[in-house]
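Reopening this ticket.

The earlier resolution said the output was attached, but the attachment link was broken on my side. Pasting everything inline this time so it's all in one place.
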Amino acid sequence: MKPDQANRLKIDEEVRQRPKGAVGLIFALVAAVTAVAIFFAWPRESDSRRIMGGGKPADAKGGSAVASTNVAPVASRPSDDNSVLTVSGYIVNRERIEISPRFTGMVKWIGVTKGDTVTNGQVVVLLDDTEYRARLRETDGRMAVAKVAVEKAELAWKRTGELAKINVESKQAEDDARLAVDSAKASIKEIEGQRELLLTYIDWTIIRSPINGVVLEKLVDPNELVTPQSFGGTRGPSTALIAVAQGNDLQVEIDLNEQDLAKVYLKQECKVSPEAYPDKSYGGYVAEIAPEANRQKGTLQIKVQVRNPDKFLTPELSAKVQFLRKKEADEKPAK
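Inline output:
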């Protein structure tokens, strides 16, 4: 390479020197970014309460604190010093009676609807009795014929007896006439029994309420076939007419967790508050503890009888039950 070409490729000393201001700016930017990173990375107490999706706080372990809508806690802490346990349950009727027919028949008339008040002995449903009344008239006709047969047999017996006295008829003929009278009378008793059976069937077509209560559900309509037993399948006749229960005989049904069973015993005094009316409270007591637990749920069913229920206690709504301490219950029973 020629000397003049080498001189042209040589970089001037002024160009090779970098400006010191640019280097200082770079170091300043790096320091600022490092300081910001350290600020946000430094642990603080508020980090244990991070806000998760949906605006719900998470717990200190990082898990979401949003409770599942399908699983709710059964028991909670006692709301006051007098109770040992507070549990939620459902208000139910102590006894639900489904009125069924005694034979297969057709609904002719139904006189109640859901929610109606009924009294003991009140007629609520009528079944079609046309067939049984027709058979009753037939039986009455057979009864009339049987009575005539008895009268005829008695006349024959009387005549045979008179002839037997003068030795015109034999003693056997007289006995046969007497037995014919007994047979005719036995036929009348048989027909009387058949008539009473038909009257019973006709009486069974009149369905009455067995209690004073309220109609929970109307299960049939007029012109619908009903039967006292199920034939299987979903398209078979109905086996019940209406469902009734006593409106002033209510209980709270509870599924109690097994870890809380030691706090509950029979006749234990309780305080019942409907969830719909939290300011209302009613006295009660543990009336029933199921003899068998639910293995899948790990619970045991408890029923608390409510004292003096009123219109604010609606079956199938939820209620809160406080199980009172034994000492408190003995000294001051809930009213």
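Reporter confirms the inline version is readable. The CA atoms of residues 216 and 285 lie 25 Å apart. Residues 133-201 form one domain.
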